[in-house]
Amino acid sequence: MMVSIMLLSFTLLAGAFMLLSYRYIIGETRDSVIRNAGYIASFTSTYYRRYLTLDVQDEFYSSYMASIAMISNSHIIVADSTGTILFATDGSQFVMDNAGQLPEDVVEQVRTTGTYNGMTSLGGIYPERRYTSALPVINQIGSLTVTQGIILVGASASNLNEMWSSTATIFFFSAVVVFLISVIASTLTSAYQTRPLIEMAEAARKFGQGEFDMRVTGYEDRGDEVSDLAEAFNSMANSLEKVESQRAEFIANVSHELKTPMTTIAGFAEGILDGTIPPERERESLEIVVSETRRLSRLVRRMLDLSRLNALAESTVTAQETFDLTEVMSRVLISLETKITDRQLDVEVQMPEDKLMVWGDPDSITQVCYNLLDNAAKFAAPGTAITVQITKKDGKAHTRIRNLGATIPPEELPLLFERFHKADYSRSMDREGVGLGLYIVKTILGNLKETITVTSEDGVTQFHFTLTLA
């Protein structure tokens, strides 16, 4: 592409230069020929008036013609009024050719219009086309205007051809040099530009083979688009590696969460069938089987919720409507009343008495409130209180849910919203959990462009999320 553009540019430049030079030289030649033809016609007219005839052998006249022809680098022809050539000069000497005759159209045009200008070979008199100007030799005899002859001055175009030849030679060699330089520059530039792209393509192929540790390095200081592309590529690679790590972790967690209750169910079922478990313990064992079955059911249900939330996250528009947040929170508290009572917990509610209308999906927010309150009730110390506080500030509804219990270590706080994450301190306590509740909460609020944070100090753990006021 670069070479083609260079060649096209040189061609257009050469064509424009030659056209301009042609017009300039033709214009200069035309003006010179017309001017010289006027001088010679005036001199010849004066000669006729003085000597009443034209003696082509007169040394004075012939010398004058030769001088003008040599100075102007032109060819002069003198003919009578009928177009018969009386003499001609090549610029250095006379060449008598009494048998010569000017073309009839030239003679006729001089008679009728008083001039002739144009490129012509005069019917073969010139070996090539020349720019020619012809004027009549006119004298006043009494009251009559008489045409006594025709003066024709022709200038060769060989100098123009020589200039074109020189120009073409210069442009040809210049084009060859520039062509070679452009080929070398294009090759080096292409290699410089394509090398990182080739590396990225190779890295992408290795990604497809499962090698997620490939990176494109060495282009950080280029400061061009390739550097930006390499940076974006490495960022994508980091994301892919993280996604793959999360996928592997997710599969491992799902496998673990499914394997544990299934192993328990299989163990107790086999114990009952083969008699290992005595009859008096069969009911207790069946209750454990039922509990683990329900745990499996909860895991499947949470996985379905998770799949639905991920599908919502990929959609461009999340359907929203207005609803009363205090009503949603009240319904959730009522649904968890039995669990809260069984754990001997109190509930302190600080909510506006009037309706608090917010934007969002009421079903999803109900799930958010349920998961947070269920989590608070699960890990609250028996005999303590759960605090639910809803306030308005800066166009947002701020909801805070606090409970008293074990303090969550600071390094665990950022991990609470990860899939299947369960803090070590709570694994023995949280037999009913599957580690997806808080992840679902964060996903729902993220789809609504809202935020959720968690703090845990001195046994007080607080979750805080926002919703936009309607």
Describe this structure in words.
This protein is an alpha+beta fold. The protein contains 10 helices and 13 strands. The strands form 3 sheets. A 6-stranded antiparallel sheet has the order 3-2-1-6-5-4, sandwiched between helices. Strands 8-10-11-13-12 form a 5-stranded mixed sheet, covered by helices on one side. It has a two-stranded antiparallel ribbon with strand order 7-9. Strand 12 (452-457) and strand 13 form a beta hairpin.
Offer a few descriptive terms.
single chain; 470 residues; alpha+beta; 6-stranded antiparallel beta sheet; 5-stranded mixed beta sheet; 10 helices
Kindly summarize this structure in a few lines.
The protein is of the alpha+beta class.
Secondary-structure map:
Elements: H1 2-51, H2 59-72, E1 75-79, E2 85-89, E3 94-95, H3 104-113, E4 116-120, E5 130-141, E6 144-156, H4 158-208, H5 225-274, H6 282-314, E7 321-324, H7 325-335, H8 337-342, E8 346-350, E9 357-360, H9 362-379, E10 385-393, E11 396-404, H10 437-447, E12 452-457, E13 460-468
Parallel strand pairs: 8-10
Antiparallel strand pairs: 1-2, 1-6, 2-3, 4-5, 5-6, 7-9, 10-11, 11-13, 12-13
Helix pairs in contact: 1-2, 1-4, 4-5, 5-6, 6-10, 7-9, 9-10
- Shape call: rod-shaped
Q: DSSP strand (E) fraction?
A: 15-25%
Instruction: Report how far the terminal alpha carbons are from each other.
Output: 59 Å
CA radius of gyration: 53 Å
Please give the count of helices: 10
Strand segment count: 13
Helical proportion, percent range: 40-55%
Give helix and strand order, one letter per element, not per position. HHEEEHEEEHHHEHHEEHEEHEE
The side-by-side strand order for the widest beta sheet comes to 3-2-1-6-5-4
Mean pLDDT: 81
Class derived from helix and strand content: alpha+beta
Ranges with pLDDT <50 over ≥5 residues? 91-99, 424-431
Query: Tell me about the biggest sheet?
Result: 6 strands, antiparallel
